[in-house]
Amino acid sequence: MQESSQNRLREEAGKLLSAAAVEVVVGYGDGHGGDGVRPLFARTPDEAAGLVWNDACVHNLATYLSREPCRQILLRGGKVGIVAKGCDARALVVLLQEGQIARESVHVIGMVCDGVLDPGAAVSGGTAGSSGAVLPKCRQCEVQTPPLYDTLVGDPAGAAAAEGDPLEDVKDLQSMSLEERWSFWTGHLARCIKCYACRQACPMCYCATCITEKSEPQWIDKPSHLKGALAYHLIRAMHLAGRCVSCGECGRACPMDIPVDKISRYLAGQVEEAFDYKAGMDPEATPAFRTYREDDPEDFIR
Amino acid sequence: MVSKSDLSSVIARAVSAGYEVYAPGKRNGKVYLEKADDGASPELDHVITVNGVKDILLPRCEPLADFNLTDVSIESIDAPAAGRVLLATRPCDAASLVILDAILLDPARDTRYARMREETVVVTVACSRADAACFCTSMGYGPHDETGSDVILLPAGDSYLVRPLTEKGKAFIGEVGLEADAGGEPDSPPQLTRTVRTEGLKAWLDENFESEKWRDVSINCIGCGACYYLCPTCHCFDITDEAGVARGRRYRIWDCCSFADFTKMAGHQPRVGRHARYRQRIMHKFKYTVDNVNLTACVGDGRCIRHCPVGVDIGEILESLPEGGAARRGGPEPGSREG
Amino acid sequence: MDENLVPRIVRVEEIREETPDTRSLKLVFEDADFQKSFEFRPGQFCLISVFGMGESTFCISSPPGRKDFIEVSVKNVGKVTSAIHDLEVGARLGFRGPYGNNFDLEKMEGRNVVFVGGGIGLAPLRPPIYEVLERRDRYKDVYIIYGARSVLDVAFKQDLDEWGKRGDVKLVTAVDPGGEDESWKGEVGLVPHVLEKVNPPPDSVLVTCGPPIMIKYVILSARKMGFVPADVITTLEMKMKCGAGLCGRCNIGSKYVCRDGPVFSLEEVESLPDEF
Question: How far apart are alpha carbons C108 and C94 in whole angstroms?
Fold first, then answer.
């Protein structure tokens, strides 16, 4: 099934590029030496033939829309094609809602997806659905068919979500005592080197000048001591509340294996509980923190 | 000779001799170079630690001085004087210190780095295996290379042959009760699967600052600092103050030419765009350091390749730059506005 | 050189408001013995700390012959410089330096020297001007061409007066068109045009500092007039932190502005990549 999806994807991307309907298709290609996959920018039909689709396609490519070269193309009114799984398309929805992309300037090739493999976990073969080594976010996935697409590749009927609770690892944390949780996070964040891989991998972190880069005043301590790391991660979490689509890329990108995605995924769960809102599911919905309802919960305001 | 299991007693003896010992330890399934206490047993089965020896000698957050804002005085915080041992480092990491020395000790002398360097003994464990990212041999080093080490421990079955290489190394093995092995047959070094061809690279870099290829090779890069901060030879730093009302502290912290802030001045940004900043990385390592101190600032440890979240592969890039022909995929038209 | 990155304490002895956004500070080292022995060469720079805010780079703009103080001139453009603009006499700051290379005044002996400055760019020119005037007989004709945006923006009025009164200096001051008032007696015109009007001989050494755009057009004019690139000298500026060639930040190509500069000849500048 994945192979026919791959062929269909290549065909579709090739058609878009031949017709000059888009200037580039951002998708996945083979990693160096055929090892794994990595983002691929296809600018010609020939290059589109190198696009791949398999259960190693973990990257959220939406982050590239606010970076070069896509940013330049979009700024001057050009059009970009992008390959998106459901979680990636959720990010596209948020970018749309926040006015970062115009609907007509992005051609979304939505991929029906039944899960991508956890790059950190051992791979024992078989499809993602059966090995059980998918990323936690793929369990009970509600967006196997992306919530936004121009072209859909894959059969929605054929996809089966992995079993389990996508927030299981986060709930484990929640069940710890406050001291245990503090110890968990300070233990992990002691390794933070402030490389900002988490921020750069995140499609929602598109600020031209990040708050960490503001110097008058220096809101966030620059050093990577614990205080500086905590300040950065907590501020980022607050800036993502109501916007994070739980794609988990931040945690995957971290070179020091700090599970930073747990922070934002936890907050996303809190936003859902309090406001019955999940970011990026519905392009027509108004984001939770851009609206006010008279019956909004106030139990956390003391 | 010293058996693998005996290395923990080497640590214990070094600690009681007053050294701070840094050795590979496992954390969350990955191996990091970290402070080893008395009783610690070093990881020895890994290819390479996530972080390098740079963490210890050029710390990512180093206090320089405390200042008082009421009477405006400043008090230097000295670099730690205690001797330290970097135990079971890899040959590539030891070699990186020679490159850092060339940059940080002459002509200007970074006194903090110099002091820590003088008080540090580098005890390398030569490699028994390599992975797909290793390319030390292409950079002129190798799995059993001795550059930068004070002592090298060469694998021989379940033990290591002990070879001191410097006076410091000889003194150290005496202190921890080891004896030098004059003879003995070490295991063969592992074969690396990856080679990176660098012929023609320097000449190409000398002439092609403006090439469109820079946009092409940096296209996947998302602009984080992971490869820079994990790289054993990246040394760039920032100096920053943190202050309350009455007191404050000045730190030296890692900084990275990938960030826009690195060169941004009031009203002027000389390196506009991802490609310009990625170009600086390659140029600094493979041209500028060669021009200035006759060394390439890369030891082929492969950390940048292993940890890049988006598959930017420096070996692939270095080989593709001098290749004939235009950029593989045309970049945006020259002159387009960039941030 | 011993680089421990920790500054010495200096005290602000005097503040001179040059223009609405530029002030000069007269600084004296807390350590009186150090002050007496402190030396710098014209062209060198320093890093001044406002503790708690950070450090900024400034050229040392006092006459190198004066051993009792040093001077820096500060334009209000950012975090640290605006803090400096809030200081009063008696304030204590940090000082690191001197760093960098220097103007090669010996090489200029026996030749005409043309100093061309704009705005606060006169600050880095003051040390070489003072040194040249101190040994005036070693040089042929000395020109000082200085321009500011408007009458209000003319800096170092005291120096300009002194130099103007000397009989052995061709001093020409100018303001940009529109920047004059009824009392202005100098030229009206952009500095590159004034340079062309003054028309010094092209076999002179030309030394220029000022806003990047002014330098760009002064260099164009100088080339047009036939000046030799090796004899056109300027200073380059990049963001700096350590000042000593350690932190890897201020390079243009293989050259570190803090160590191989900030003084460069046009010949050297043209061999650098377009990254500044």
Answer: 34
The distance of A69 to chain C (nearest Cα, Å) reads: 20
Beta bridge partners of C56: C48
DSSP E strand stretches across A31-87: 37-42, 80-84
Going from the C-alpha of A58 to that of each of A74, A248, B72, the distances in angstroms are: 24, 9, 53
Query: Which range has the worst mean pLDDT, A136-145, B121-130, B170-179?
Result: A136-145
**Two tokens, residue B224:** 């984080």
pLDDT one-digit tens code per residue, C106-154: 999 999 999 999 999 999 999 999 999 999 999 999 999 999 999 999 9
Which chains, if any, share at least 3 CB pairs under 8 A with chain B?
A: A, C
What's the DSSP call for residue A264? H
pLDDT at position C2: 65
Identify from A24, A66, A200 which residue to disrupt to test chain B contact, counting B C-beta atoms within 10 A and taking the largest count. Answer: A200
Exposure string of A246-260, with b = 16+ CB inside 10 Å and e = fewer, is bbbbbbbbbbbbbbb
pLDDT at res. C18: 94
pLDDT of residue B326: 52
Q: How far is CA B307 from the centre of its chain?
A: 14
Cβ under 8 Å to C: A residues 195-224? 215-217
C51 touches chain A (CB under 8 A): no
Q: Which of B299, B241, B260 is nearest to B100 (CA)?
A: B299
Residue B263 lies in a domain: yes
CATH of C8-99, picked from 2.60.120.200, 3.40.1010.20, 3.40.190.10, 2.40.30.10, is 2.40.30.10
Distance CA C256, CA B290 (A): 14
Per the structure block, which two tokens stand in for A126? Answer: 């078989």
How high does pLDDT run on average in chain B? 92
List CB contacts of C188: < 8 A, sequence separation 6 or more: C174, C175, C176, C177, C179, C180
ipTM (interface pTM): 0.92
For residue A64, give the amino acid letter: Y
Q: Which residue has the tokens 């000298």?
A: C233
Contact list, B225 vs chain A (CB under 8 Å): 193-197
Residue of C nearest to A215 (CA): C79
Domain C113-235 CATH class label: alpha beta
Say yes or no: B122 and B243 in one domain: no
The confidence score (pLDDT) of residue B331 equals: 38
DSSP string, A219-233: -S--S-SHHHHHHHH
Closest CB from A41, A73, A195 relative to B224: A195
pLDDT at A37 over 70: yes
Residue A163's pLDDT is 82
* Same domain, residue pair B163 and B271: no
Burial class (CB within 10 angstroms; exposed 0-12, middle 13-18, buried 19+) of B168: middle
Q: How confident is the model at residue A120 (pLDDT cuts 50, 70, 90)?
A: low
The encoded tokens of residue A235 equal 């501020």
pLDDT digits (tens, 9 = 90+) for B126-167: 999 999 999 999 999 999 999 999 999 999 999 999 999 999
